[in-house]
Each structure stands twice: as structure tokens, then as C-alpha cells.
Design brief:
By secondary structure, this protein is α/β, with parallel strands linked by helices. Among the domains are: 55 residues, no CATH class; 168 residues, no CATH class. The protein has a 14-stranded parallel beta sheet with strand order 1-2-3-4-5-6-7-8-9-10-11-12-13-14. Helix 17 links the parallel strand 12 and strand 13. The protein starts with a helix and ends with a helix. InterPro entries: LRR_dom_sf (IPR032675).
Length: 563
């Protein structure tokens, strides 16, 4: 037996399977994975090669690779002795490296598939001259990282020599932070990105964060033509970020003509003067971060893609210009008019300026243009502060307009507080169980439901479970539900009705969905208790049903055996 174990540990396929079990994909994505794999690499010769490959495949910082160079290792140890809590910066490497050391360095670099710059301080570890030094050591012997697939969180040096050394034929995705075309850069960074695109024909995913507004105007359209996915956003709030970090008119014109671009995430703070274009004809998914209030509406009117299926609009970054109720209808008109084949729509609101005292018809009127999107499967409206008021008639209209819905989420993070003292009162037009019957009938594929209000008086539960006299869809597959503010008088009776309408609700996932969306605010304790108690009661109903079905099955088997 011992001999068989010994033979097995020399079988490369078996070793690979064991390492694959500890690090799926043969790369470490977390520190918890790195520890057991590192132990395998240290203590076992048999596991050394596959475990080492897994350790180096995802490099969390370039620092680990640089320690293989004796000159850098010596500098680092000396610096840490004098500055235990400091960070080594601006290292200039110049010493000769032995062939054996360089071979070890190249061997480790060849295993790297995913590279991150690590902590922000790691950005400044190497001086520009050190990257030129590495380029000289490399010579004409192929890419420095021949297996590299992704580069994340990378801030290039002034010369951008580091970007050129990252290029390889297998490279697929690059994320670059703080790359500019002025302040002494002399266009070197866009040209370096252009070289990377040319030398990495498989690079189709590019992310730029807080870069010059005219960045793409310095790159030839031929080099950009291979891009399928593009991010251009800012990592600071609108009131802090320079306007020069948002894409300008010229950059948008360049991007609008890219033939293969299918996925775009763009942060806008536009000057509408001389910003005319029409394009983006290949987009499938689009995310707009609107920092100017109205930029999303303006952009959609210039987006001509008939293939657009997923649209996300983020309005949470508005500071100086508040989003008003009057802005909702034009936005919905633009969405419906320019995305006729849309399947998924998400809109994130910060808060509405001068939020009026609402009536349900306000949301129904604003969203009515969206009823033209008959293929819509996902609708999400998220509000950071405040609330929408819904009613049975609003949800019934939604259900009739979008029969293909799979997910409907209208959720809030923080509510307007109600007046303390005594029990809170439900809104007079709140949602009742009647709307659940409508959703069950009209939306047979609905699986996720998250709504702001639910009012369940005793008379809606007792007697007939079908409160509106219409049939619901038996065996409906809805499995996750959350209610932001539930006013439920009898949790057990309400749970029985829910179990009857939606027999496949998953209590665990429903509870988790609610808790993720709402902090334990004291003012919402009443609603929190009401909904969580209802879920607990629903779990009891499901257990009773399962036990009854099991008893019936056992009785049937006994009867069959007796015959």
C-alpha cells in the first residue's frame, strides 16, 4: 500500500488534481488558499512544481518577484531594518545578474497569469530607470510575462516602460489608473497603451480609471478596434475630481466608432457644447455613471445599438445637481425609445431633490414609457434615501406590461423616518396580497421580488386565500422575496397565504436578501420584526407541508407493500 502511495505521488496528473482541489483554476485567489499550497511547495519535492505554478499564477504584487533579484532583496532588507513600517521607493537597479538568478526570475515570471500592482505604495517601488534595466536584461528573448492574462490596478510610471514590458500575445485584460497625457507625460502613456494593444492581439478588455479626458484621441483607431469591453470612470466623488478626468467630446467620438465594442461602462460629466456624435452600434451592455444630471438621457439619445440588452444607470454620484421627479419621465422616454430590445434595466438613485409627498401614480406616470419594453426580464430601482410609494394597481400594471419578468426589485437603503410614538401606520395606498396574485398570474417566470411596502390586514388572510377572486399560477417558481417595510398583523396567517401563492419561496435566501439591503435601524425595528417573523412562520408552513407529503408517501408505500 505504501508503495502504491509513493507511485501515486509521482503521477503528474494526480498531483495536478490535488493542487486543483486546493486552488481551483490552479491559481491562488485568496490568502487561505496560498497557505496550504505554499506548504506543499516547501515540504514536498513531488508537489513542488505544480504547487509553485499555482502560487505564482496570481501574483498579488510585483514585490514578490523583485525579491528574487539579489540587489533588490539586499536593498529591501536593509531598508526594513531601519524603517520597519516604511515603504521602499524609487529603487534604481543596475547590478549585473547571474545567468542562474535571471533564469529563476524568468521561470517565475513565466508562471504569472494574473498580475496586480498591490498596495498603492507599491506603485512607487521601482524608478523608471529600473524598468529600462529589466528591458535590457530581457533583450529580444520574448515577453517578460509570456503567460500573462490580466493586469489589474496598474499605475504606470512616467516613461510607461513598465506597460510595454507587460505586453504579451496571451494578454486579455488591463486596468490602468491615473494615466495622463499632460504634465510632462508628452503622450507617452497613450502610445504605450497603443503598443500593448498592437503586441497583444487578444487584449479585448481595457479599464481606465481617472485618466485624461482626451486619452483615446492619442491612440490610432486601428489599435482600439479590437476592444470588446471598455471602462472609463473616475475614482473620486464628482465634487473632488477634476473635469479633465471625464471623457470629452473627442474621446466619445472615437469610442462611438469602435466596431467590436459590446460592453461599455462610462462616467459622464459633459459639456454639451460640440459633443455631437451617433454610434456605439455594437453595444450589448451599457453602464452610465451620470455625474452631471441629464448626461444619461443625453447619451442614450446618441446610442444607436439595436443589440443593447442590459442597461445600468447610476445617479448616486450627483452632488451639485439633484435628480428631480421631473427628470424621471424624460429618462424613461429615452430608455424606451433607444433600447427597444432591452432585457435588463437597473437604475440607482442617490436621493431626489425636494422629494414631494408621493402618490402611487407618480411612479406609474414616470415609468409608463418603459411599458413598451415587452421583453424586459429584470427591473431594479434602488434609492439610497427616500422611498417610492407603490400600490396594488401599480404592481398589477407592471405585471401586465412585463410578462417576461424574472426579477423585480424596488428597494431603499434609508427611509424617511416616521413620527415616533405608537405604532407606525401603513400608507393608505400600500401594496397588499392582491398584487401577489397578479404577479403570479401575469409573470410566470418571476423568481426574485423585492418591494418597498406590504400591508396585510387580517381580513386578507382569513377565509379565502385568493383575495381578489382570480386564480393565481399554481406551483409558481418565485424563490426569493424581500419587503422593505412590512405591516403584517398576523405573521402566521400571512405566511400561509404566501406559501399558497409562492410554494417554492426559499426562506434562507429571502432573509439574507432583506438583511443585506437594510441595516438594523431602530426606527425600522417594527417592520424588520414583522417581515422576519413572517419568514419564520413561512419556514414552519413549509416544514409541515414536507412532513405531510412524506407521511403520505410512506403510507402509499405501505399500502402498496400490503397488496
Amino acid at each position: 500500500m505504501a508503495g502504491m502511495k509513493h507511485v501515486a505521488l509521482h503521477d503528474a496528473d494526480i498531483l495536478e488534481l490535488i493542487v486543483e482541489h486546493l486552488a481551483p483554476g490552479k491559481e491562488c485567489t485568496s490568502e487561505a488558499q496560498r497557505q496550504p499550497i505554499s506548504a506543499l511547495a516547501r515540504v514536498s519535492k513531488a508537489f513542488h512544481i505544480p504547487a509553485t505554478k499555482a502560487l505564482w499564477a496570481r501574483l498579488p504584487s510585483l514585490h514578490h518577484l523583485l525579491l528574487l533579484l539579489p540587489e533588490f532583496d539586499t536593498m529591501y532588507r536593509a531598508y526594513r531594518t531601519e524603517h520597519p513600517f516604511g515603504d521602499l521607493k524609487d529603487v534604481r537597479l543596475s547590478e549585473r545578474v547571474s545567468p542562474a538568478t535571471w533564469a529563476r526570475f524568468r521561470n517565475r515570471a513565466a508562471a504569472v497569469r494574473h498580475l496586480s500592482q498591490g498596495r498603492f505604495s507599491d506603485v512607487l517601488v521601482l524608478h523608471d530607470e529600473s524598468w529600462s534595466y529589466l528591458a535590457r536584461l530581457l533583450g529580444d528573448h520574448g515577453p517578460l510575462f509570456p503567460s500573462l492574462r490580466t493586469v489589474s490596478g496598474w499605475q504606470p510610471t512616467t516613461s510607461c516602460e513598465d506597460l510595454r514590458l507587460l505586453a504579451c500575445p496571451l494578454l486579455q485584460s488591463v486596468a490602468i489608473y491615473h494615466a495622463f497625457t499632460d504634465q510632462g507625460w508628452a503622450g507617452s502613456c497613450p502610445l504605450a497603451v497603443q503598443d500593448v494593444l498592437i503586441n497583444a492581439p487578444g487584449l479585448t478588455d481595457l479599464k481606465l480609471v481617472s485618466c485624461s479626458d482626451d486619452f483615446f484621441t492619442h491612440i490610432t483607431p486601428e489599435a482600439l478596434a479590437q476592444l470588446r469591453s471598455l471602462w472609463f470612470e473616475v475614482d473620486q466623488p464628482t465634487d473632488c475630481a477634476p473635469r479633465e478626468w471625464y471623457p470629452n467630446a473627442a474621446a466619445l467620438r472615437v469610442l462611438s466608432a469602435l466596431p467590436a465594442l459590446e460592453h461599455l461602462r462610462v462616467e459622464l460629466a459633459l459639456d454639451y457644447n460640440d459633443t455631437e456624435f451617433m454610434g456605439f452600434g455594437s453595444l450589448i451592455t451599457l453602464c452610465i455613471l451620470d455625474s452631471g444630471c441629464g448626461d444619461a438621457t443625453w447619451f442614450l439619445e446618441r446610442c444607436s445599438s439595436p443589440r443593447l440588452r442590459e442597461l445600468t444607470i447610476d445617479l448616486t454620484n450627483l452632488y451639485f445637481q439633484e435628480f428631480e421627479w421631473e427628470d424621471m419621465h424624460p429618462l424613461c422616454v429615452a430608455i424606451a425609445g433607444h433600447t427597444p430590445q432591452l432585457r435588463e434595466l437597473q437604475i440607482f438613485f442617490g436621493f431626489f431633490g425636494e422629494m414631494p409627498e408621493q402618490i402611487p401614480d407618480m411612479l406609474l406616470t414616470a415609468a409608463h414609457p418603459l411599458f413598451a419594453l415587452r421583453h424586459l426580464t429584470t427591473l431594479s430601482l434602488w434609492l439610497s434615501y427616500g422611498e417610492f410609494i407603490l400600490s396594488d394597481s401599480v404592481l398589477e400594471a407592471f405585471a401586465e406590461a412585463w410578462p417576461a419578468l424574472v426579477s423585480l426589485e424596488i428597494c431603499f437603503s434609508t427611509f424617511r423616518p416616521y413620527t415616533p410614538g405608537g405604532l407606525p401606520r401603513p400608507h393608505p395606498a400600500s401594496v397588499t396580497l392582491r398584487s401577489f396574485h397578479a404577479l403570479s398570474r401575469h409573470c410566470p417566470h418571476l423568481q426574485v421580488l423585492h418591494i418597498p411596502h406590504l400591508y396585510v390586514p387580517p381580513e386578507d388572510c382569513y377565509g379565502s386565500v385568493n383575495v381578489d377572486g382570480a386564480e393565481h399560477s399554481p406551483g409558481h417558481q418565485l424563490w426569493k422575496m424581500a419587503i422593505c417595510r412590512a405591516f403584517i398583523v398576523d405573521a402566521h396567517a400571512c405566511a400561509q397565504v404566501l406559501h399558497h401563492i409562492f410554494p417554492h419561496l426559499d426562506v434562507g435566501h429571502s432573509r439574507a436578501a432583506y438583511l443585506r439591503s437594510h441595516d438594523a435601524c431602530q426606527e425600522d425595528h417594527f417592520f424588520r420584526t414583522a417581515w422576519l417573523n413572517t419568514l419564520d412562520a413561512l419556514e414552519g408552513c413549509q416544514t409541515s407541508t414536507s412532513n405531510a407529503e412524506l407521511s403520505y408517501h410512506d403510507a402509499s408505500q405501505c399500502e402498496s407493500s400490503g397488496r
